[in-house]
Amino acid sequence: MKTALLIDQDHDVRASLATWLRQTGWDILEAEEGETGLALALEQKPELVFCDIQSPRFNGFQVCRSLRAPNGLLPTTKIVLTTSSSYGADKLNALEAGATDYMIKPIMRSDLMHLLNNGATVDDTATRVVTRPANDAPSAPIKPLADMVPPGQMSIRFWGVRGSIPTPGPTTAIFGGNTSCIEVRVDNEIIVMDAGTGIRPLGDQLASEATGRPLALTVLISHTHWDHIQGFPFFAPAYNPKNDIRIIGFEGARDGLLATLSSQMESPYFPIGWQQLPSHIALVEQKELKFKIGSIDVEAAYLNHPGLCMGYRLNTSCGSVAYLPDNEPFQRYKYHSNEPHQAGQTEFLTYARKMDQKLVDFVEGVDVLIMDSQYDATEYQTRVGWGHGCVDDVVALAINANVKKLFLFHHDPSHDDDKISKMAQWGRDFATALGETIEIEAAKEGLEIVLKEQKT
Ligand SMILES: [Zn+2]
Ligand SMILES: [Zn+2]
Fold first, then answer.
1. What total of structural domains would you count in the chain?
2. pTM here?
3. 280 forms bridges with which residues in the sheet?
4. Which residues form the domain of 345?
5. Fewer CB within 10 Å, N or C, the chain?
């Protein structure tokens, strides 16, 4: 005779299942919680296990994983996880944990009979894991709504300017507490640079401007540290099936940009999986350092930051903007390095100077430079090797590169509005002392810069 084990705290649920199963010739074992259930399963090796996901002392997922462990404790036993939750993510979680089936309570006799006769009840189409290909390019070039991108000008708007972690509150009310996100509208494109928490209000703004029409836009990702991607699960346009979203980025230290982006939406961290996002999302893992977004020439450069970070420069019909969100200047790093064989040695400083010069060349003559200036020079001394720059170096770099307007960016979470204002003033005084006319400001949430087309 075949044996079925029923693990459920609810006596009535066990009683119904037991009655129906006995009628079809099954022997029944029962447990009220996961731990005893698991022990019974290992001892009696039943052919069928029903286990409630919300079982005390080992939930259903744990029981399932233990029975399906790599050494295969009960590889052929059919495991049905039962639940009163009908969330799509939990079905996927059950199958991922190794369940053969998933049933939503209350379980009807007919459902049970269907399972026994057909071997499965799970609706495969509802639970299948669809893999979005890494380079699922849209069938046609994406076309933003014309009235949302006025011709003859470039608009650059800051939606998130903070580094590391969001810092809302009265002391950051002027410059803002959202993490990295900048919107650029130019040449019939909407380009969003990074998806920190600032992308949430941007998404709401875009959706309201679209007034129900399909949106098309590009998100450029510098790197996948939290402060640059954490807002994406809250980006309203990603939940509209009419929208085309193209995400462009580079693979970082881990295999696959898709895997990294989607992992922050896995079940333990977020209720909706990447695969469940209804918009058309095309992920383009870029390999070339020069590419195009529509008619805009984009250049990318590696920055000095843990785990790889890209800086971008957009050359448009209305001028150029460079975005270098996280970067630690090489020279200062090498000079202050803790490694005694490196600190201050000529070879290392020569090399560091060469690397910094590369960045100067990259941003040469740019109209707007948005750059990591998280620390002042004193703070930097205790932050060596953290991957961020200080305002003195950034101002010097911008002057050397003939930048027209510099925005200090990636503000430190511990810096209040007063401190940020003082850092910007320090930068301006430094430039004036050098006889330079460069404009310097601290990036500020909500600020928009408009550049007009440069007619030749
Ligand atoms: Zn960052
Ligand atoms: Zn970073």
1. 2
2. 0.84
3. 244
4. 146-452
5. C
